[in-house]
Inverse folding.
């Protein structure tokens, strides 16, 4: 409806009606309500949501638009398609009213439930790591990039987005690193000065809207019911659920939520690897942290991925230039192969020394997943650091958004 596919022109059977694929008949209004009336109400709600969203950001809130990988499975439950999960205006509408409901319930509990209220705080980011993101942005030529609080970071991303969406996605991926996890807590255990939610820029927040999938929301529902029933109900609940017990329950919810997130992330990684075995995919990526000849960190914004690339694991010998802050990777061929023996025989003593290989010895073992096919031209020169990045096969990591070029071509993972 918000996107315009379902509208007043095809509502209630007009012009052939709304296609079943867009709006299932079983989910359409009944009891005297009309499709046109529902469409009008949704559009009105969206108008309010858009205004509220603009006001939130004007008041200092932050939204990091990190892509999330979505994998579609075939009949055999194996992934057949990978894409970035789409966020539509309808998602944003639901988000605004969800945030509003959670905020208002948190306000009610903080006033009525005293020391047994269950809220959710989001601490500020780690200052040292946040400063590193700012430093990197400045090295990219973004002199106006600031991160004093959530609002200034959001404004910085807005300015970048008007110039380069690729650079914005890259920095947003990195900005997730310094962020601390949000946590449930019992108000009797934490001073009010620490209740705030950093990203939302509000003094208190909780989770109320999803009791069917989060136990913390069930706790909040019980507290809200007691607060609506009056002081006696709150005191009765306090007798059965003391502050110590609520604190323990909050700690358990935090632990389970983190474990569930890790399980979900690990599952997505497994399916991604299965997908890449049969669907080698080339994506843009950026190198943002080169640590000598050991490893570099690579961000793939399109899939919301940030990974550590350990050179030896992928069968590469790294040559690090400290002055240029550049690393050039050269191939390690499978030990014992005719190609490896011929390559060793063709190298000069100084080249062998540079690779850390003594004369007559096989090169170090390649990584178990893949090995570098080629990191330079036939004359052994470094590859052009500009180009595409490969996830599962293809080209080199681009130098477009990174001050730390990495000349490398990864072979397909197998």
């Amino acid at each position: 409806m918000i996107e315009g596919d379902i509208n007043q022109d095809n509502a209630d059977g007009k012009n052939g009606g709304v296609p079943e694929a867009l709006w299932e008949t079983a989910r359409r209004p009944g009891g005297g309500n009309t499709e046109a009336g529902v469409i009008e109400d949704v559009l009105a709600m969206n108008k309010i949501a858009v205004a509220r969203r603009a006001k939130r950001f004007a008041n200092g809130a932050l939204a990091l638009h990190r892509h999330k990988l979505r994998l579609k499975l075939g009949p055999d439950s194996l992934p057949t398609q990978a894409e970035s999960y789409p966020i539509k205006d309808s998602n944003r509408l639901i988000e605004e009213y969800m945030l509003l409901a959670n905020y208002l319930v948190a306000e009610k509990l903080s006033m009525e439930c005293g020391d047994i209220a269950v809220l959710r705080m989001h601490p500020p980011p780690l200052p040292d790591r946040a400063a590193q993101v700012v430093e990197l942005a400045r090295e990219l030529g973004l002199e106006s990039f600031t991160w004093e609080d959530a609002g200034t970071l959001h404004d910085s991303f807005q300015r970048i987005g008007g110039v380069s969406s690729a650079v914005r996605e890259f920095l947003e991926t990195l900005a997730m690193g310094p962020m601390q996890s949000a946590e449930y807590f019992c108000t009797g255990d934490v001073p009010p000065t620490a209740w705030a939610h950093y990203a939302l820029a509000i003094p208190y927040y909780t989770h109320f809207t999803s009791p069917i999938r989060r136990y913390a929301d069930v706790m909040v529902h019980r507290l809200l019911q007691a607060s609506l029933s009056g002081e006696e109900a709150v005191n009765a609940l306090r007798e059965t659920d003391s502050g110590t017990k609520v604190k323990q329950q909050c700690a358990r919810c935090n632990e389970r939520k983190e474990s569930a997130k890790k399980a979900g992330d690990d599952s997505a990684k497994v399916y991604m690897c299965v997908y890449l075995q049969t669907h080698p995919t080339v994506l843009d990526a950026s190198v943002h942290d080169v640590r000598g000849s050991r490893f570099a960190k690579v961000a793939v914004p399109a899939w919301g991925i940030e990974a550590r690339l350990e050179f030896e694991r992928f069968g590469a010998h790294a040559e690090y230039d400290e002055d240029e802050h550049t690393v050039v990777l050269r191939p390690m061929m499978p030990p014992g192969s005719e190609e490896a023996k011929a390559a060793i025989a063709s190298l000069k003593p100084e080249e062998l020394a540079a690779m850390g290989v003594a004369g007559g010895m096989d090169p170090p073992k390649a990584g178990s997943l893949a090995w570098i096919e080629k990191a330079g031209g036939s004359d052994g020169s470094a590859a052009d650091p500009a180009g595409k990045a490969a996830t599962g096969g293809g080209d080199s990591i681009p130098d477009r958004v990174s001050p730390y070029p990495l000349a490398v071509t990864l072979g397909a993972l197998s």
Observations:
- DSSP finds ten helices and twelve strands in the chain.
- Confidence is low (pLDDT under 50) at residues 354-414.
- Residues 171 and 317 are 28 Å apart (CA to CA).
- The radius of gyration is 27 Å.
